[in-house]
Amino acid sequence: MNELVLDSIRKRYYMLIDNYMAYVQYKEDGNVLTLTHTYVPDDLRGKGVGKILMEALLNQMQVDGRKIKPQCPFVDGYIKRNPKYRDLVSD
Prior knowledge:
Elements: E1 5-7, E2 12-17, E3 20-29, E4 32-39, H1 49-64, E5 67-70, H2 73-81
Parallel strand pairs: 4-5
Antiparallel strand pairs: 1-2, 2-3, 3-4
């Protein structure tokens, strides 16, 4: 199973998948994370890795009681396609 890891030094949540790192970069403002960039290595694109990463991250935000601001177009599109996460979006 792919584990979501917080790297608070580099301000990213990441997963190691097939010896590659996929991640979401963020900026923190109190209890709100602005999700600024999503990265999936070329060799993993088109294999659902972005979806796996987003589900893990957004589920973790629900558990932690945090809010997000989707600045990254991939994150914004994912939330629009998955309305169950809309309550995480900060005003």
